[in-house]
Amino acid sequence: MSLTWPANWSDLTQGIGCAMCQSDRQESDAYGIQIYSTPNVDAVLQRANIQRGYTIVIWRGRHVNEPFELTESEYSEYWRDVLKVAKALTRHYQPLKMNYETLGNSLPHLHTHLIPRYVVDPAPGRPFPLLPQDGSEPTIPDEQLRADAEALRRVVAGIA
Predict the structure, then answer these.
(1) H helix intervals, the chain
(2) What is the pLDDT of residues 135-160, one digit of tens each?
(3) How far is CA 151 from CA 44, 52, 88, 93, 120, in A?
């Protein structure tokens, strides 16, 4: 395990080589299926079978590392959309609790992990044991993921 920041950390904080900035914002990719999108925000239901409903909301405006780098109108838009997606996830999956993690420690680009918490849970009463993904994680069966994505799109569309 590395105990240092990536060698290109300074570049990444400036958006140089930032995978989230360079994304072509496809409806579906190796990471997941887009369930919500605006000009500045994408919400992607994750393929990795880490926790059912695990979704990442990504800021797609200009590159920023921290929420405080957004203008007032930008952060209002971002957090409104994060909460809208969280509400849709809660209505669809009916978890006991929703966790919100805005970290950026492995990729310094503003994004928030939404993690529904259930009765059967890997860490009840504690933070979810979310580790950086490397692509080797087992995935949710495609048919189930697509069905969830379609249902979530309908739910989020009905939230004002």
Answers:
(1) 9-13, 19-22, 72-93, 142-157
(2) 889 999 999 999 999 999 999 999 98
(3) 13, 14, 9, 10, 22
Residues 98 and 113: beta-carbon distance below 8 Å = no
Q: Are 78 and 62 in contact (CB under 8 A)?
A: no
Q: Which two tokens stand for residue 61?
A: 């405006």
Place of tokens 């989230």: 20
The predicted-structure confidence for 114-125, as pLDDT tens digits, reads as follows: 999 999 999 999
**Model confidence at 47: pLDDT above 70:** yes
Q: Which residue has the tokens 């490397």?
A: 134
This model's pTM is above 0.90: yes
- The separation between the first and the last C-alpha atoms of the chain, rounded to the nearest angstrom, is 44
How would you class 89 by CB atoms within 10 Å of its CB: exposed for 0-12, middle for 13-18, buried for 19 or more? buried
Taking the CA atoms of 63, 84, 103 and 68 in sequence, report the sign of the dihedral they define.
positive
18-35 as b/e: b if 16+ CB within 10 A: bebbeeeeeeeeebbbbb
